[in-house]
Amino acid sequence: MGSTTRDRWAEWLTERRFGGDAELRREVLEQLAQIRDLVLDRSELREGETLLDVGCGEGLVGFGALERGAGKVIFSDISTDLLDFCREAATELGVLDRCRFVEAAADRLASIEDESVDVVTTRSVLIYVKEKPVRSASSRACFPGEAGSHSRSRSTGSAWRSSGGD
Ligand SMILES: C[S@@+](CC[C@H](N)C(=O)[O-])C[C@H]1O[C@@H](n2cnc3c(N)ncnc32)[C@H](O)[C@@H]1O
To answer: Within a domain: residue 1?
Structure first.
């Protein structure tokens, strides 16, 4: 990722939040790994399922889902640079064929087909979405109507899953 052209979200997530402090970076990423695990535990993701992570950032939740055996992960974000970052990481990890990258705001997920995902997650994104429509937009991508279950914590993210059985 070119350092001079990164958008503000990419700049923040990859550099500024750590203030150039490698030890702080290590500590923060260690804490975030615990939060990622909580989000994925609550999502009840099963092997082979498709997970959509809204506001994926550097792919904290999405790559965790792939490690847990997700069949496919859709990384969505408004940041082109962060999606490029995730695509490069997926290539390096050899999981590109299980990934899709969608540049879209949380309330503009129409390009994701209805009933095409089993689980929707989002962490530390809703606070930046003014009208907070992400729930219905994400749910529609997952399953039309209001079916499904939702598990949420303000500090540790949200997960929704289809209630459509196996
Ligand atoms: C604090 S970061 C969290 C990133 C990631 N979810 C994580 O847990 O590491 C917020 C992310 O939300 C994205 N974002 C901000 N506003 C958004 C919006 N309206 N729709 C979708 N994504 C958004 C940013 O580009 C950034 O990747």
So the answer is: no
Structure confidence at residue 15 (pLDDT):
85
Ligand 1 centroid from CA 4, angstroms: 20
- pLDDT at residue 8, rounded to an integer: 93
User: Do the domain assignments include residue 3?
Assistant: no
Any atom of ligand 1 within 6 Å of the Cβ of 124: yes
Residue 51 forms part of a structural domain: yes
> Tell me, what CATH number does 81's domain have?
3.40.50.150
15, 39, 78, best to mutate for ligand 1 pocket (most atoms within 8 Å of CB): 78
**Binned average pLDDT, 10 residues per bin, the chain of 166 residues:** 74 88 91 93 93 95 98 97 97 98 91 88 85 54 46 61 54
| Centre of ligand 1 from the C-alpha of residue 103, in Å | 11
pTM for this model (two decimals) = 0.87
In a domain, 166, yes or no: no
105: left (phi over 0), alpha (psi -120 to 50) or beta: beta
Instruction: Give me the domain span that covers residue 38.
Output: 8-161
- CB within 8 Å of 1: residues ≥ 6 apart: 10, 14, 81, 84, 85, 88
Task: Using DSSP bridges, classify how beta strands 50-54 and 119-122 pair: parallel, antiparallel or unpaired.
Answer: parallel
Pocket of ligand 1 contains residue 137 by CB under 6 Å: no
